[in-house]
Amino acid sequence: MLVFGAWEIAGRIPISLAFPTFGETVAALLALIADGSLIKAYASTLQPLLIGIAVSAVVGVAAGVGMGLSRSLEWLALPIFIILQAAPLAAIIPLITYIYGIGLTAKSLAVILLATPVVVMNAYKGIRNTDPSLIAMGRSFLGTRTQQILKIMIPHARGLIFAGLRLGLAMGFVGVVVAELLITPTGIGDLITYHGSVANYAEMYASIVSIVALAAVTIGALERVERRLFRATGAAA
Amino acid sequence: MKKHLGTKSFFVIAAVFTLATLAGDALAQTKTTKIRYALGDIVTHDDLNLLIALDRAKARGVEVEITPFKSEDLATQAVINGQADIGQGTPYAVIQKLKAPVRFFYQLSALQFFPVVDKSLYKTWKDLDGQDIVVHSRGSGTEAIMSMMAKHHGIKYKSVSYVPGSEVRALAMLKGNIKASIVDNTNKNLLMKEAPDKFLVLPLGEIKASDEALFATNAFLDANKAAVGILLEELLKVWREINKDPAFAVRERQRLGLLKDLPAKLEGEVEPYFKQAVAGGIFPNDGGLAGAVKNDFEFFTASGALQGTPQELKADDFWNLAPLKAALAKVGG
Questions:
Q1: Which candidate from A97, A190, A201 shows the least CB-CB separation from B162?
Q2: In chain A, what is the straight-line distance between the N-terminal and C-terminal CA atoms, in Å?
Q3: Which CATH superfamily is B32-111+210-331 part of?
Q4: Considering its fold, how many domains does chain A have in total?
Q5: How far apart are CA B209 and CA B104, in angstroms?
Q6: Which CATH architecture has domain B113-201?
Q7: Is the pTM of the predicted complex or chain greater than 0.90?
Q8: pLDDT digits 0-9 by tens, A65-87
């Protein structure tokens, strides 16, 4: 409420002619929902987001677990993911278009490039940091390697794996918006670009608020799922 | 003795005052006025005419510092929020909707775009009926031109996609990802040079609306009449020189050492660019004046950037022609 109040005051001063009040932004958001443009935009934005997140989750967890289990895979892949994590991806994303064009593939790839490294690194750290005494205990009970992985390492690492998925989801939202702003304006990126270019600033801010709110709600929901799962199994996140 | 010293002192003081006044006047004359110029793009060879005019204005004590921005929107915001003095673009929607105290005062160039199609698929405008086309962005001039042509030829596109940047669309056309689009002069030349047998330029009726215009706040224009006057005089002179002889831009670039880092590949494109621009009549000799206002109102209401009809709109709400008229009175015409 404090933030919204401050926003309303800042818009009324105004701090900039292009800065709408909170009330105008809410009204614009409702108008965008009512005329169907926001729903249409999300139908477009969610495609690369869902594809990118799904690929990042599967590939990221598999790669992270693999790197945690295998020293040679770690040697091969770790530098790549460290570089990807540190690279200024906003500068790299336009380069994707040279190879993959300007369509869904390029945008999904942008999501994958942003989301995967954090998923990989968390899964890798989770496996690698398994308590050695637990593994020793598994061995002393004559547990096979598969049993060690499935019954000790992965359950031990799942807190970090889930944290990685949550961070990956957040990065995915960043990736899809950056892709839609930098590659071609579609979906929510189109709403932001278009309304900015024709000086409909309330609609522009409403579009930005909507994607921030959606990201926050989705990440919050994933956190709840995580808590419920771990409470059910008695594990700590 | 006392009286003699007094007279001498009087003359010394008078001489010092005279010298100081003369020196002050000289200093005032050489004093440089700085203008912060917001450009919503990178500086390239098609800005050479502007750079020549700015170089001349600098010699007359008006130093213009260009800051390139990522987009025209950001450049416009910089002017509105006071981080820049002059902006370049056509932010009619911002002026109308925000009632921003910003006015256009010089038309740098009129629109010059070329609808280019893959000629193995399309030969005429009619062939684009029910086809996919790609333009710069929603609500842009390129979209407006393509919509006007569709209306004119009684056709309807299947879809309109948006890919910002003529150079990006041209690259995608060369790669075969885009079959029909609209690009600027430089990129039309690139396409025709790289794949002359692959593309065709569709004919376009005469569109004379502003592509680039200068704008500033009324407060800035009122407070900096002399500096703005010098800038406009030099712009008018350079524009007229280029309209007389497009090679003037190439010669002046070499003489003044402008755009030294221009890639060799682009050097050969400078003269053709200015020749075609002059042939297309995109550089006004008079800075636009009422003709630019009328053409802009017609085009930008049709494009949707301006609301209302051209007859309802008032020139004074968007343009401040007083500095241009004063400059024209000095340079003639």
A1: A190
A2: 30
A3: Periplasmic binding protein-like II (3.40.190.10)
A4: 1
A5: 13
A6: 3-Layer(aba) Sandwich (3.40)
A7: no
A8: 999 999 999 999 999 999 998 88
